[in-house]
Amino acid sequence: MAVDMRMPTTMMISFGVTIALAVLCQSASGTTYQPNWASIDSRPLPAWYDEAKLGIFIHWGVFSVPSYSSEWFWWNWKGAQATPAVVGFMQQNYRPDFTYGDFAKDFTAEFFEADQWAKMFEGSGAKYVVFVSKHHEGYTNWPSKYSFNWNSMDVGPNRDIVGELAGAVKNHTKLRFGLYHSLFEWFNPLYLQDKANNYTTQDFVFKKTLPELYEIVNKYEPEVIWSDGDWDAPDVYWNSTVFLAWLYNQSPVRDTVVTNDRWGKGIACHHGGFFTCTDRYNPGKKQNRKFENAMTIDKYSWGFRRNARLEDFLSMDELIHTFIITVSCGGNMLMNVGPTKYGIITPVYQERLAGMGQWLAVTGEGIYSSQPWTYQNDTLNPDVWYTMKTSGDFKDVYAFLLKWPSSGTLDLGAPVPGSTTVVTLLGYSGSFNFKSTGTQGMRITLPTISFLSMPCQWAWAFKLTSITN
After folding, report:
1. CATH top class, domain 384-465
2. Which residue would you say has higher pLDDT here, 288 or 10?
3. 0.70 exceeded by the pTM?
4. Cα 8 from chain centre
5. Most buried among 92, 219, 258, 290, by the most CB within 10 A?
């Protein structure tokens, strides 16, 4: 019979760590979070996360060796419903007795330079990174005590990948460091036995999942815990609320850490720190709860693909449009890159990261620390999305224009200008003439701006100061 870890008691579990439940302790702020969703959900989201707006996701692991199909390569080869293309790929290119574990020795990472990565991510304008510490394949990118011979120190690069990147990010940038961790593993015998037992046993949870989570939090102190792989089993199987109560009350990052919503079947989009709901979640309207749009530059994969075509990657226009809409509706965007097995972030990813940084250097005023306005999308112009900043009694509204008009005027339906309203364009000197268009709306006259004088290439931010609504 499964142990109910929700009970208010202190227990010694099998991996030798004593967990004092949240009812017996407090966070540094003086608040005690109980191991139930009502209490967990009551915790305020640390302000830094909402202010950040952009994060970088990094999917790297043994799946980067075959670098074909996606990071789900092993499952697509050996899972319950194998993908014919992946099965055929293995039959044509590898000996019959080749196993997935045989790929690990070629996860060499010889060109991985953590400082270089960290500076590249900071240059993108992002404010945090989330690195995959372990995907569903079970391979850990740190020398875990609970993943014998299936970790980055014992096989492959023979390095503590998580430790190196954590050190570079924390010591040489202003970025916040976070870790993705998969709760389950496709082919782990302990998990498969628990599953066969209809999750009435928790051997995998207490011998693998929880020990790893406590290990990475205590060792690397990530300020984002991005959970995944939760969808088959209920949250009580994963002991999710007990872990989160410890994280918020006792952990070394208890006051600054943020978590997502993937903590058990049916929990996503209902409970947790911020909501991810589904991959590439971009609802297009304001949400009542802080959300994150976790998305990929490669349209079809989170991991690196050797056979990816140029058209498989989102253009700068597409990336920035997605970002603007996400932020306008109150979300953050977590933009994913997939490095090669050698540890190189390929030029197409580098170009997109640099482009995002260039754009934010001009428009960041309307992005960072912004809030959703009364309107997200303009009522008249579908190519305009809004953000807002408040300073005392004053509010500045930022109208992000996805397409520059050819008519010489910009018509907006949502703002109501007043006698003290000023319209400027971020990155461009001078103000713009405008007039009201009835009880609501305004028409902005656009001067002829040469290509070389345009402040940015892909989308533009008009600052509307002192509008009346």
Report:
1. mainly beta
2. 288
3. yes
4. 33
5. 258
